[in-house]
Amino acid sequence: MSYVMAIDAGTGSVRAVIFDTKGNQLGVAQQEWTHLEEEGIPNSMSFDFSKNWTLVCECVKKSILNAGINAVDILALSATSMREGIVLYDKDGNELWGVANVDARASAEVKELKANFEGIEEEFYQMSGQTFALGALPRLMWLKKNRPEIYEKVASISMIGDWILARLSGVIASDPSNGGTTGIFSLSKRDWVKGMATKVGLKDNIFPPVLEVGTPMGYVTTKAAKETGLNEKTQVVMGGGDVQLGAAGLGVVKAGQVAVLGGSFWQQVVNIPSETEVPKDMSIRVNPHVVNGLSQAEGITFFSGLVMRWFRDAFCDMEKLEAKERGIDVYAILEEKASKVPVGSHGIMPIFSDSMKYAKWYHGAPSFLNLSIDPEVCNRASMFRSLQENAAIVSSINLENIKKFSAVEIEEVVFAGGASKGTLWCQILSDVTGYRVKVPVVKEATALGAAMAASVGCGIYSSLEEASQKWVEWDKIYEPNMENKKLYDAIKLKWQRAYEVQLKLVDENITTSMWKAPGL
Questions:
Q1: Of 414, 107, 81, 37, nearest to 262 (Cα)?
Q2: Are 1 and 73 contacting, i.e. CB atoms less than 8 angstroms apart?
Q3: Pick the CATH number of 3-244 from 3.30.420.40, 3.30.300.20, 2.30.30.90, 3.40.50.300
Q4: What are phi and psi of 262, to 5 degrees?
Q5: Is the dihedral of CA 411, 416, 419, 423 positive or negative?
Q6: Tens-digit pLDDT profile for the chain (520 aa)?
Q7: Cβ–Cβ < 8 Å for 283, 358
Q8: Relative orientation angle of helices 330-338 and 317-326, to the nearest 10 degrees
Q9: How far is CA 106 from the centre of its chain?
Q10: Which of 238, 240, 301, 244 is nearest to 271 (CA)?
Q11: Cβ contact 294:255 at 8 Å
């Protein structure tokens, strides 16, 4: 038997997953990791190369052991990672400095760029589809200003998934889907735009080769083989960004296809041709897809999964006990109870993530509006359902905004991630959007997408499109209740008006924003 491996470097953990050549998962190992704020540097989130590489190696070894296979039978591997996180190297390929995805230390530099170069963010967004908030340019400016001794040594830049592949193969490179999130990139050309760095006084000779996802990079080095337990005959293959490879793992590889990824954050992604003009108001993020010739318009809903976890842990001790007694997941208990709550959750309006306003993005203070002191109306079940409805409503608004500039006609949505494991949330998403919702058998698709990349690199398949056609299977399909949609359309309008007021309270320093983009 032959196998492929995916290494998935997320915000909160890293895991290695082994698949057979038919896409069946055979073994997995996972380690949590943290990205710590540097002392004296507010909003920083540093990446610890030494500690995190040890965790990667442990995951690789344990996944092989858990799968019960011989490492020599792993034909190829690839990696995927959180986007926006960057790693900088010296001329010998040694790591100098790195940050995880939501490092926001460069807020002053974002403001400085906008002040000193009028219209520059708009200009660069038209090429890259990215704003400065989590881009690499402000972070590089911060480094030049605050750590000049490190900046002078910088010879190359890559993303965190690329760093794993570099450690394994000795080759530093990046791909469009992940590298594109630096913002120093062209959507149409799928390559670096070095002139962006030149224009703001930064080095323009630090950008490595750009390889399309699925391109062979080399083989596991002798050193990496000793550290990981891998075999030197295993090919190392270019991977990509977690959302885009996750979309491939859901079969979303053709123009016009749509996915909602329901994890800690929710992403709403729509495949569009690479030459599509981005929206003038910079409201939506646009990234290169892992499929050459395609980009992805992306809406983001902040913290939907994390809010659910907070609600579960803060309020649902009784449901936890019941779930333990019945031997089922606590969310299944909560969905059972929430299914008895009528559409609209008795008017309860959660205020957490706003719809995406990429150019100037911040959120209201976390809160619930329209709570009742009637325990039959306002209780854990109704509040839980209101959170499910709210995540679907914000997703719906983001999809509508994408439709406006892309002219994509949406008929169905692929729904995946932890949120798709139940039944109520899937139906609510269908009812709110008015679209058919398809749930795949493999719901945690990011690693599957990376395994597809590995399978393309070693010749099992000719393309990601072919791999996804062979590997993706469907579990459930939900059709929208159009009467419910009418009710949700009215709720959506009320929620948008309420959110505007909540933002004004933040503006007046009466309440505290859940999150603000750097530079605001």
A1: 414
A2: yes
A3: 3.30.420.40
A4: -100, 80
A5: positive
A6: 899 999 999 888 899 999 999 999 999 999 988 898 999 999 999 999 999 999 999 999 999 999 999 999 999 999 999 999 999 999 999 999 999 988 889 999 999 999 999 999 999 999 999 999 889 999 999 999 999 999 999 999 999 999 999 999 999 999 999 999 999 999 999 999 999 999 999 999 999 999 999 999 999 999 999 999 999 999 999 999 999 999 999 999 999 999 999 988 899 999 999 999 999 999 999 999 999 999 999 999 999 998 999 999 999 999 999 999 999 999 999 999 999 999 999 999 999 999 999 988 999 999 999 999 999 999 999 999 999 999 999 999 999 999 999 999 999 999 998 899 999 999 999 999 999 999 999 887 899 999 999 999 999 999 999 999 999 999 999 999 999 999 999 999 999 999 999 999 999 999 999 998 877 8
A7: yes
A8: 110
A9: 21
A10: 244
A11: yes
Q: Would you call 355 helix, strand, or coil by DSSP?
A: coil
- Residue where the block lists tokens 């976390």: 366
Residue position matching structure tokens 């337990």: 229
Name 62's Cβ contacts closer than 8 Å, sequence gap at least 6.
Answer: 16, 29
Q: Which class is 251-444+481-520 in CATH?
A: alpha beta
350-387: b or e for each residue (b if 16 or more CB lie within 10 Å)? bbbbbbbbbbebbbbebebbbbeeeeeebebbbbbbbb
Q: Please state, in angstroms and rounded to a whole number, the distance separating the CA atoms of residues 504 and 514.
A: 14
What's the predicted TM-score (pTM) here? 0.92
Tokens of 436: 């058919």
Are 100 and 177 spatial neighbours (Cβ–Cβ below 8 Å)? no
- The residue extents of the domains of the chain are 3-244, 251-444+481-520
Quick check: do 3-244 and 251-444+481-520 share a fold?
yes
